[in-house]
Amino acid sequence: MTGHDGTTTVGQLPAPTQGQSRVPAALTRLVWLLWIATLGVLALELRGGGGWELSGVVAVDGLTAVMWVTVTFFSGIVHSYSRRYMAGSRTIDGFFARVFAFTLVVMLLVAADSLLLFAVAWLVMGLVMADLIGLNEGWSQAQAAASLARRSFLASTGSLAVAFGTLWWHTGTTTVSGTASAVGAASTTVVLAAAGALVLAAMIQSALVPFQGWLLSSMTAPTPASALMHAGFVNAGGILLVRFAPVVTVDPAAMLAIVLVGATSALLGKLLKTVQPDVKGKLGCSTVGQMGFMIMQAGLGFFGAAIAHLILHGFYKAYQFLTAGSRVDHESPTKQRSDGSVGALGVAVIGLTALAGGALFAALTGKGAKLDSGLLLTMLVVLTVMHAAREVVAEAAVPAVIRYGAVPAVALPALAVYAAVFRAIEGLLAGLPAVGQPAELTAIHGLVAAAFLVTYLAIGTGVYRRSTRLYVALLNAAQPAADTLLTAPEEYNEY
C-alpha cells in the first residue's frame, strides 16, 4: 500500500503467541464473559424478573436484554476471529480496543433512557465505526472512506438531535420512556416533525437509499470490522424506530412513509446486487436491501418482526463476511453455468414451496389471517421463499433429486425457526409502548405489494437485463465514492 513503510513479510502471518500483546486475548475473554452475563439477564427477563432501571438514565427491558445477547455474541465471534486475522498487524491493539469500545457503546445505546445519553452513544458509536473503516492510516482510500462515513454519521446524529430537541422543547420530556405519554400532549405537526427527523437518522445509519454511499465505500475496513458493521452497526436504525415507536406511530401517514422508504431500499438493494462483480460489493448491496426490509416491517407496525429480522440477518451477514474469501471461485472461465431455466417441475416445486411457506408462517404467527398489514408481511415471506427456492432449483450442477427435494425440506423448517424467533421477540417487546399494533391496509400498501411482485418477476426472468439504461443507472448507484477506489496496482501492491 502507498505509504506503508513496515517490514516486508512474504508468507503466512504468525499465529498469536505469548510474546505478543495480551490485549487481544484479554478483550476476547472479557467480551465472552459479557455474553454469558447477558444470557443471565435475558433468562431473568424471560421469567419476568427483569426490569431494572436507574431512573432517567438507563432501563433494562426485553429489547435491551435480547440486543445485549446479540451484540456481545457477534462481538465475541469478531474478537475470536480477529486474533488470527489481525496477527502481525501493527494496529492490532488499536483494532481490538475499538471493537471492544464499540460493543460497550452499543450496549449503552440499547439501555439508554436519557435522551442525552442516547444521543451521545449514537454519536460515539458512529465515530468508533468510522475509525475502524479508516484503521490503516497509510492508505489514502481508507481515510477517504472513513471521512465519508464520519460525515454521514455526524449528519445522522444531527438529525437525531433535531428530533430530540423538538420533543424536549414542546413536551419537556428528557427520557425515552417519557415520550410515550408526552407525545399525546404535543400537536400533530410537532410529532410529525420529530418523527421525520428520527426516520432520517435511521435511514442514514442503516444505509438506506439514497444514503447507501458510505456503506458501499467502506470496504477498506478490515473484514472483521465489516462483519461487525453489517451484522450490528447498520441495525441501529431499527432499534431507533422501536425505541421511539410512540412517536412514529402517532400518524398513519408517518408509518406509510416508513413503509415507502423501506420498500424502496429493499427493491433497489436487490437490483443493485445484481450488477456487483465482487463478493463484498454484493454483500454491501444485500445489506442495503435487508435494512430496507427491516425498516419496512417497522412501518407495517411489526416492530417484533423488525428486531427478529435484524438478529437473523446479523447472523447471516457476519458469517458471509467472515467467509468471504472462501467464496472466490477457482474454476475455469469456460465452465458451463446454468442458464437460469427451471422447467415445469421446477416451477411447481418453487410455487408450492412458497405457498406452503406463507401458510406455515401465517399459522405459526397469526399474521396474514386478518385484513391488515399482516397480509403484506406474509406476501413478502412468500416472495422471499420463492426467490430462494428458485436459486436452488436453477443450480444445474446439483442433482435434480437433491434440488427438488431439498427446497421444501430446508425452506419450511427455516421458516418455522423464523416464526419461533418472531414470536419470542414479540413476547419480549410486549411491555414496550406502541409496538403491537399492525397498520391498516391502504391503497399504498397494495402498490408496494405490486412493486415487489413485478421486481421479483423481473429479476427471476432476467427481463430487466434488456434495458441498457437501467443497467447503467444501477451500476452508477452501486459505485463507491471515487476517492475510495483502488485504481492502480501500486496503490495496494506493497511487494
Question: If you had to describe this structure to a student in words, what would you say it looks like?
Answer:
This protein has 495 residues and is an all-alpha fold. The protein has 2 domains: 312 residues, no CATH class; 99 residues, no CATH class. It contains 19 helices and 2 strands. Strands 1-2 form a two-stranded antiparallel sheet. Strand 1 and strand 2 form a beta hairpin. The longest helix is centred in the first third of the chain and has 32 residues. The N terminus is likely disordered.
Q: Provide the gyration radius in Å.
A: 23 Å
The gross shape turns out to be globular
| Spatial separation of the terminal alpha carbons | 9 Å
Roughly what is the average pLDDT, rounded to an integer? 84
Strand content: under 5%
Secondary-structure content class:
mainly alpha
Query: Spans with pLDDT under 50 lasting ≥5 residues?
Result: 1-13, 335-339
Task: Summarize it.
This protein is mainly α.
List keywords for this structure.
495 residues, mainly alpha, 2 domains, 2 strands, 67% helix
What does the secondary structure layout of this molecule look like, with pairings?
Layout: H1 23-46, E1 53-54, E2 58-59, H2 62-85, H3 92-111, H4 115-133, H5 140-171, H6 179-182, H7 188-205, H8 213-216, H9 223-231, H10 236-243, H11 245-248, H12 252-273, H13 279-299, H14 303-322, H15 343-365, H16 374-393, H17 400-428, H18 443-461, H19 468-477
Antiparallel strand pairs: 1-2
Helix pairs in contact: 1-2, 1-3, 2-3, 2-9, 2-14, 3-4, 4-5, 5-7, 7-10, 9-14, 10-13, 10-14, 12-13, 12-18, 13-14, 14-17, 15-16, 15-17, 16-17, 16-18
